[in-house]
Amino acid sequence: MKDPTLSPAARVWVLIAVFLGLLFDGFELGLMPVASLSVSKSLLGDDFTPQAGGDWFARFTAALMLGAALGGIFLGALGDRIGRSRAMSVSVLFYSFFASAGALARNQEEMLASRFLVGLGVGGMWPNGMALVSECWRGASKPLVSGVMMAGLNAGILLLSQMARVWPVTSDSWRWIFLLAGFPAALGLSCWFLLPESPEWLRSGNRHGSPRTSRPLADLFSSTMLRRTLAGIILSAIPMVGAWAASKWMIPWADEMARSTNPGYKAAVQGWWSGGAIAGSILGAQLAGWLGKKSSYLLISLGAWIATLAMFQITAPLEPLFIPIVLIQGFFSTLFFGWLALFLPDLFPTAIRSAGSGMSYNTGRFATAFGVLGAGALFNWLGGSYPRVGSVMAFIYAMGVAAIWLAPSRNLDEKEMTG
């Protein structure tokens, strides 16, 4: 039988669908940093304190990261069994449905459960979407395509921040934004019925799209793949923990400082951060191509560490330097994710590419969940000081200087990886 191929129009549709899936993924990721304190103030009522707000922000973030870790691993493996496009559709439907369910939350515990379930879909979107694009656009510039796809995540954060800037999210008006987060379900349904499957995945043993009988998760820890899997996990975990356990404290900090005088300021801060992040996402893969993967990761680690320390130590919300440094920090901290979009798919063979990318990218979210909870405890121990907790957790980025030497020196060819 002739190998399946995609027409140019079908390849463009794949690119658009995955970009939109990642854009709405970013919308979900950016939702609670903007809404968390307002949600907590509304649901806790008289029990709300600034310290309790920070503690619940850490819990909501940890729940999302734990869900994303599990979703990335198991929905990533599902993509190797039933196909990238269908597993991506399931992921989009998961994060859309459970995000909208958050609008019905009557207490903090129900919102916590909602964020965990949203995380399942958020985690599954990345490995399946990136594997699908990587396999459907083999002839294109991989750094450029990978960078544009990762920019989709931060474009979603930017979209949310601009909406929240025009219509501020407050303790009296926050449920609307969760209802809005359910609209991507239309994309999930469209992808299930209309999005073509990866020809490379079909050629690898599933021409008719039948479920696989192999065990991709077990294969990742075989003697051939073990070192690569561990390297992928560690190099993914550092920027993930840094982003959520260190960087994201800037938004509730801005909310706390400006809530009474400028309720839209927190959204403006996230908007400027995401502007830098879009540029970083695009250029991270390019930088890896220009400087080499090891040298670029080392420099990105140093840049993110310095920028994060500067954001928390030499300025503060509402001061003139704060927004420019937030922009710079967003740029450096997301160069990692453009780098990972190029690095991870090539680390694994076709048969376990979604599972490998999902395991690497999302196991870091397990570390992030515990890192954020630890940062929340540290936040309380430091007396509810946002600059102190952000500065201490910024040292996560410095670990990348040493961790990059775990990266393999070369890519294996398909025969070596499957032999």
Order of helices and strands: HHHHHHHHHHHHHHHHHHH
Low-confidence stretches: 207-213, 413-419
Radius of gyration: 20 Å
- Number of individual domains: 1
Largest sheet: none
Give the end-to-end Cα distance, rounded to a whole number of Å: 24 Å
Describe this structure in words.
- The chain is mainly alpha-helical and 419 residues long.
- It has one domain (8-195, 215-418): Growth Hormone, Chain: A (Up-down Bundle).
- The chain contains 19 helices and no strands.
- The protein has helices at 8-44, 50-82, 84-101, 108-136, 142-166, 175-180, 185-194, 199-203, 216-219, 226-245, 250-258, 265-291, 293-313, 322-343, 353-381, 386-393, 395-398, 400-403, 414-418.
- Helix 4 runs antiparallel to helix 15 (353-381) and helix 15 packs across helix 16 (386-393).
- It is globular, with a radius of gyration of 20 Å.
- The relative contact order is 0.16.
- Residues 207-213 and 413-419 have low confidence and may be disordered.
Short description:
With 419 residues, the protein is mostly helical.
